[in-house]
Design goal:
63% helix
Length: 81
Amino acid sequence: MNIIEKIRDTETKLRAQTDPVKQLESWTMLERLLGRMPVDQALLKQVVRDRDSVGLDVMIRKLEDPEAFKPKADPLPEYTI
């Protein structure tokens, strides 16, 4: 299991947990793991502080498939003279 898989696994377990102590442990683990990845650290702190599960999911998806979030380049229009 690589680190991105571990992050996704921890996030999946977090969604299933109802015990607040275990949820806090999962958020702490995710903050530590994501802190080692190429993510916006200020955004990471905000996501963890706010317990933003949607923001967390987007952050993980960007790590899993960075190409999906890159803007598509529009082809240049053709001009005739």
